[in-house]
Amino acid sequence: MPTNPWYNKVNVSALGDDARRLILERVKHKLGFTKTLEALGIAKGSLYNYLHGVRRVPDNVVYRALQHLEESEFNEIVKGLDRLRAIGIIRGDGSIDYSLILQAIALATRDEYLKQALLKFTVENFREDLRKMLSLSLAHVVFKWEPGFEEFLRERKKRKKVASPGTMTYYRNLFKQYLEGKSLSEELVNYVVNHEKKWLRNVFRHYVQYLYYLRRIPPETYGWLMEVVPSRSYKLDVRPYPISLEDVAKTLKYLKGNHEFYYLVYRLMLEGGLRLSHALLLIKSFSPRDLVEIPGVDLETNRLVCFEERGFCRYYLGVRGYVKPCEWAYFSLEALKLLEKHAGRKINRSTLEEYIKNHGLLLPKYMRKAAWRLMIKAMPREVARFIQSRFGELKISEARYEDLLGEADYYYPSYLGLLSNQITEMH
């Protein structure tokens, strides 16, 4: 037996009649009628009277009954004010033990769920009191985009940091246009919540976190602001992408006959599952004679490796850092001939996209999606993820990287064969 069992903390005399009967009922259900009589030291008639409310269950009987229950069972049975009385938060005369209440509230500093529950309850039940309390603390805070805020977004945010320069630029533009120079106030909060640009909420919340990090706003202000300004909502639905292999073939056929350079771009995207930006970078920076070392893997390799007997090459593009990654670009020997012909060419992606739209062709973004759908038919998904540099979906050790590279080399010809069979323009 433990030296201080949980039931010793229960103030049995504070329990109401219903709670007493429920405790007794649970013990009877657990032990059986006869064993309950033995365990509690009571007569058969007494147990009947207690259970049917003829007589009140005495304190000593309740105490003995608690010894046959787990604390979780007690918490399940005894709820609301009865439990608060039982643990001493509400005294026998109805007064409140504020020291215990404050100790419980103090746990919110260590428990995220309790903190969020307290914040939500406070906002829902004391909104007007909060408004009056916070009005003074809001008055002297002015929104200003500054280097420290950028550093906070990149390096110090607790959750997902802002790594992409494009995202940072977008946030800065939103901030400068809608928040710069404005004082923190209820009016600003309402303005942000109801603004048509939902991403503004995210920028606002990031700045509130920054203010809290710098201790420019107190915890209660931070909690209220994060509660009343929701983050940008995401509608989770199934979006069918309008891709068919007929559309892919039609697009390739048109480009092959009318614009060889764009045909090369689309072919690289389809054969390697590349993004448009990576395909354009590959053409512009093509440097096949380089010898490179892959960071973090301790693997030295030629940038361009060709398997002529198997009909394909792979090229180490090595895009990492703040942008979407692209390690290897896989493509056929036929694509290599076109790549060597157009190597070093530069083009603005918007020019290409405008050409595609004007001729009613399949948009570039759908080529990577079409490639994925076919790749997973020709190879394991993990290998397809590796080829398409979907490293956020993979956990790769140094040894596993080399394994996946070998597996990609092994399975890739099967994908090219499937691609050739499905899309005649690839012949």
Task: Describe this protein with a few key phrases.
427 residues, mainly alpha, 22 helices, 6% strand, elongated
The gist of it:
Helix content is 58%, strand content 6%.
| Percent of sequence in beta strands | 5-15%
Average pLDDT works out at 83
Question: What is the total tally of β strands?
Answer: 5
Q: Helical segment tally?
A: 22
Query: What does the overall shape look like?
Result: elongated
Q: List low-pLDDT spans.
A: 234-239
Structural class: mainly alpha
Give the neighbour order of strands across the main sheet: 3-4-5
Distance between the termini: 80 Å
Please provide the ordered H/E string of secondary-structure elements.
HHHHHHHHHHHHHHHHHEEEEEHHHHH
Largest sheet: 3 strands, antiparallel
What is the radius of gyration? 34 Å
Helix fraction?
55-70%
General description of the model:
The structure is a single chain. Helices cover 58% and strands 6% of the residues. It has 22 helices and five strands. The strands form two sheets. It has a three-stranded antiparallel sheet, with helices on both faces. It has a two-stranded antiparallel ribbon with strand order 1-2. A hairpin with a 4-residue loop joins strand 3 and strand 4. Helix 11 crosses helix 13 (199-213) and helix 21 (381-387) packs across helix 22 (398-422). It is elongated and about 100 Å long.
